[in-house]
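Title: Prediction job returns without error message
Component: structure pipeline
Severity: low
Priority: P3
Assignee: unassigned

Description:
Job completed but the reporter wants confirmation the result is attached to the right record. Sequence as submitted:
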Amino acid sequence: MGWLYCWSLLQTRDRAMMHANLMNNYFNPNLMYTKEDFRRCFRMMHHVFECLLCDVQQVNLYFRQKRDIEGCPGFSPHQNVIVALRMMAYASPADSMNETHGMSESTCLDTLEQLCDTIVQVYKDEYLREPNQEDLNQLIRKTKDRGFPGMIGSLDCMHWDWKNYPIGWQ
């Protein structure tokens, strides 16, 4: 057995183990963490993740599990999307994903780029557009109901006076 073959088996085992851990922790019926844990960890609700995963798999072949040159399974769609979301949610560097998800820096960066491009492609018409008058009216109603009238046009809210404004920010 050559060293390359042994290295390939090790990587495959790690990928499979990481996938099994991910599924046991967040996706299988007897999951270790709750849906609230998922939302806190990945900055999105579980059902939104499932919709995103389904949509990106349909549009981009990158997010379907493939086999590597040795014929072993590559990263699962769940692993690919989770890694990209973690990097975005926490501004994590790509090289930090190797320890927790077993994915190299270059693969993480490719995955992040693929996910971002796919999200734009899939959701641009519905979510990535300029707001129309109906959208603005809805935002104005919501902000007024929450005690921030006139917030549109001043999204940074710099014109609001804070009673207990942190001294270090003055």
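Comment from assignee: result matches the submitted record. Residues 1-10 have pLDDT under 50 and may be disordered.
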